[in-house]
Design brief:
By secondary structure, the protein is of the alpha/beta class. It contains 4 helices and 7 strands, in the order βββαββαβαβα.
């Protein structure tokens, strides 16, 4: 079991909260809910305009895991949220769930970038 205090870390700069998710798998409801709560706490503390979520360590996200990210969307209804550093299976799950923008799905709740730096550049546009 993952220590609840270590599910994610965040750093706010220039109105953008950059969050690094620290768990490799988000497949259990308890982990998903704890991650959601920690993400929301970071947003409430930083009060960012936009959020970048670095998922480079997350090699698997089950359907329950998306609750954590949808909680972020509800907490930041008018901000932009960019997920980055997605492993291919995780990217595929986001696409199948229609949660990231693709050529055929521009209305998705999250944007996607290859790297954290690319995500930050995307937010400047």
């Amino acid at each position: 079991m993952t220590d609840a205090s270590m599910l994610c870390t965040g750093d706010a700069k220039d109105g953008v909260l950059i969050v690094a998710v620290l768990v490799e798998q988000i497949r259990e409801a308890q982990i998903a809910y704890e991650l959601r709560d920690q993400l929301i706490a970071l947003i409430q503390e930083a009060r960012p305009k936009d959020v970048v979520i670095d998922l480079g360590k997350a090699k698997f996200i089950g359907s329950i895991g998306f609750l954590a990210f949808l909680g972020v969307r509800r907490e930041l209804p008018n901000g932009r949220i960019v997920v980055c550093n997605l492993w291919q299976p995780v990217r595929d799950m986001f696409v199948v769930s229609r949660l990231i923008q693709t050529a055929s799905n521009q209305g998705a709740p999250f944007e996607v970038a290859e790297t954290k730096e690319a995500a930050l550049e995307r937010l400047k546009a």
